[in-house]
Model the fold of this input.
Amino acid sequence: MAGKRKENEAGSSNDLRADVLRVLGVLKVATADQIQRLSLPHLTYRHTLKPTAAKRKEARTASHRAAVNDLRRHGLVVDGGRTRGGEETRLLTKDGLAAAAIELDREMEEMGGMPKSAGRFGASHSMTVNETVIALIRPKPNLNKVMREPAEAVAAARAAVGAPDGIGTLASYATEVALPVKGTWKNPAIGSVRADLVLTAPETGVPLLFIEVDNCTEEAALIAAKFDKYLRFFLRKEKDTDGFEKAMWRTRWSAPAPDEYERVHPPVLLVFHEVGQRSAKNQMARVADLTRHHWQGRWHPEAGYHSYDRCIPIVATTLEELREHGPAGPAFWRFGRDHRQSLLEAIGNPRRDAYLARRCQAAREEERRREEQAAVEREARRPVCADCGQKFTDARWEAIGYGRSWRERESHPYLCEDCQARAVAAEARAEADERERQEQERLRQEAEEQAAAQKAGGWLSCFRP
Done:
């Protein structure tokens, strides 16, 4: 025990250190509070009797801070400075990133890069990215671990568990992912774009979603310019391992294949956090206007939906709305639409889906009608027994089919099975009777011939000497 304590002087467990590695492996830079909320959310509802918010945070994050300190002693984590709120941040070292890749079961090429200026200038952008992940996942506490807490804390934990689910788990996200317009995944060329977040959660209906975060400090024109790079990346093609050329992004991520009518690019979500001088609402409107050529679809009045062939679905929200409503709530504005929707509705095309569903239903109904009409016409052609007047069964109809050879044809094609059986039996009896008659006739003739022979023999005996 003493040896283990010497190795991990802060006394953290293996599970807690793994928590830290996984969270930092995805987020790259994070506070102990964010690590705790993502990995052990039930701790948020403990230590509620502490006198101040600071002491409550200190108590609930103590275990993960100890784990961070142990990892730092092993050279896997370094200090990353402080946020503008005064919280300490932590970063992974190169060895720490490799250890995190093992915990996340990812290749090093999948781990993404470190955010620019991580740990400096308060890491405000990285903190907003982290809060976006937490708001999307909406980690739910384990109620069994808070049942001894005060009633108010238990009620808050129950409310969190009963709230709509988020999307994905920590492993569903990746940060600072390079999207090379030239070069390779590992060495993207200058001019490539870096996605703040990439979400892959096909089990929730989101096979692939790129996420950009802005603290309302960046010019709308600079944000809009990123979509030119996104388009260049989406249009880039590369040979896959099967030897066929396909969109480069499809060689890394899975997504439904394009259908016959639309080849829509993967969606991009913009999350604005109004901490800068600009208005989030104005930022959305300005970016929407500058990127119209990327997202504007074509209206089909006869079908009642927009098609987005070769368009980029761009969706926007604010961190505040995302926290309040979650991915399942009406927090997302799809550029070009006039109302807020859930994330799945916003990145999708519900009107087109409804139209296609109606068309498929109509096609099924038409097929059913044709099958019924064909059945009626076939029934009208069904043969009738020439003897009893009963309709032929399907098996009998098949048995007398004209596709058979003459040797295989039925003996009574105009009779049903029962009448055929009776006719065959009657013919068999008639044949037997005929054979018996012929046999009797033969025997009679033989008897007559024998009698005649005997009579002739008796008459000739009178003239013998």
About this structure: Residues 353-381 form one domain.
